[in-house]
Amino acid sequence: MARNAKKALEELSHRGPHEVLHGDLALVGLPGIVCTPRSGRGLPAVAFGHGWLQSPRRYAGLLRHLASWGIVAAAPGTQRGPLASHRMLAADLRTALDICTGVRLGDGQISVDDRKLAVAGHALGGGSAVLAAADDPRVRAVATFAVTETMPSALAAAHRVTAPGLHLTGGKDLLAPSVANAEPIAAAWGGPVQLRTLPKASHLGFTEGRHWTELVLHGKAEYRTQRTARALLTAFLLRHLDGDKRWDALLDSDVSGATIDQERTRTAALTA
Q1: Would you list the DSSP string of 97-135?
Q2: Reported confidence tier of residue 171, pLDDT bands at 50, 70, 90
Q3: Looking at per-residue confidence, does 215 or 77 come out higher?
Q4: Given CA atoms 187, 189, 77, 235 in this order, what sign does their dihedral have?
Q5: What is the pLDDT of residues 73-116, one digit of tens each?
Q6: pLDDT over 70, % of the chain
Q7: What are the pLDDT digits (tens) for 229-260?
Q8: From the CB of residue 180, how many other CB atoms can be counted at a distance below 10 Å?
Q9: CB of 161 closer than 8 Å to CB of 137
Q10: Sheet containing 139-145: order of strands
Q11: Which pLDDT band holds residue 37 (cuts at 50, 70, 90)?
C-alpha cells in the first residue's frame, strides 16, 4: 500500500506500467476514441463524457493515462453541438460500455469484465454520466469533473445512483460553480460519495490543449488540474472496479490542490 496520500498522488500522476493502444470507436458504429492496455483479461472499463462543445480528443491524455494503469477508457464523440442532448449522450456512454464488453478490442488479447464498469465525464458529460449510471445497474463507480446540471436532471437522478461517486469541482469555475452543481448532486447521492474542491481549477482546466471555446467559456487547460484529476480518478477506479487498495490513502485524505468537502462527503463505505 502507498505509504501516504502525497506518495500515492505522485505515483498515480505518472503513467502506469502498461503499453497503450489507441482505437477509433467509429469503426464499430459510434464516433469517438478508445484507449486500452496492449493486453489483459477481465479488465475494468470506463466511458467518459466530454464537456459542452468539446472534442473527446481534449481528454486523450486522460484516456491514455487510465489505459496505462490497466483500465479500458472510451469516449464517445457525439452530441458536440450547442444543442447537445444530455439524454442521448448518457445513452452513448452506455453504448460505449456495450462496445467495451461486447466487441473484440485490439488483436484479441484484451477482454473487459462486465462487472467492472464505470462512467465519468466533464461538465455536461459529467451530468450525463450521472444519468447513465442511474439507468444502468452495471455501473459500479461514477466520477465527474466540474459537473453541470442536465435535462433531464442529474440532480434528480443522483438519488437513484447507489454506486460510489467522486465529484471534483474547480474553485475558480465561473460556469459550473460547485454551490449550484456538484454540491447538491453530492448531497443527493444515493450511495457513498466524495466531493473535492480543486481551489485553483477553472472550468476548462480539466481539458487538454488549445481550443476555440476558450474564447467563449471560462478558463483554459491547466497542467496541475489535469495531474491531480488523473491521479484521483485512477485511484478511485482501481479501487472500485479492481479492488486495488494500494491507493486508499489518497482517497481518504486531503492532498495539496484537492481538499475534501467533509460536509457533503459520505465515504464510510468508499474504501471499506
Answers
A1: HHHHHHS-BTTTTEEEEEEEEEEEEETHHHHHHHHHHHT
A2: very high
A3: 77
A4: positive
A5: 999 999 999 999 999 999 999 999 999 999 878 777 899 999 99
A6: 97
A7: 999 999 999 999 999 999 999 999 999 889 99
A8: 12
A9: no
A10: 20-24, 32-37, 72-76, 40-49, 110-122, 139-145, 165-170, 193-198, 259-260
A11: very high
Q: Count the Cβ atoms, other than its own, within 10 Å of residue 260.
A: 17
List, for residues 47-59, the tens digit of each pLDDT value: 999 999 999 999 9
CA nearest 88: which of 78, 96, 98? 78
Asked if pLDDT for residue 269 goes beyond 50, the answer is: no
Distance from C-alpha of 165 to C-alpha of 193, rounded to nearest angstrom: 5
Number of Cβ atoms within 10 Å of the Cβ of 130: 31
Which of 59, 97, 91, 72 lies closest to 18 in space, CA to CA? 72
178 Cβ contact list (under 8 Å, min separation 6):
169, 170, 171, 195, 197, 261
Buried b or exposed e, range 11-21, using 16+ CB within 10 angstroms: bbbeebebebb
In whole angstroms, give the CA distance from residue 264 to residue 124.
Answer: 21
Grid cell in block for residue 165 = 461517486
Neighbours of 272 (CB within 10 A): 7
Measured between alpha carbons, how far is 268 from 272 in angstroms, rounded to an integer?
7
Q: Cα(267)–Cα(272) distance, rounded to whole angstroms?
A: 9
Cα dist from 53 to 50, 59, 82, 243, whole Å: 8, 13, 6, 35
**Under DSSP, is residue 166 helix (H, G, I), strand (E, B) or coil?**
strand
Distance separating alpha carbons of residues 122 and 202, to the nearest angstrom: 12
Helix (H) or strand (E) holding 92: helix 86-102
Query: What pTM did the predictor assign?
Result: 0.94
Distance CA 56, CA 50 (A): 6
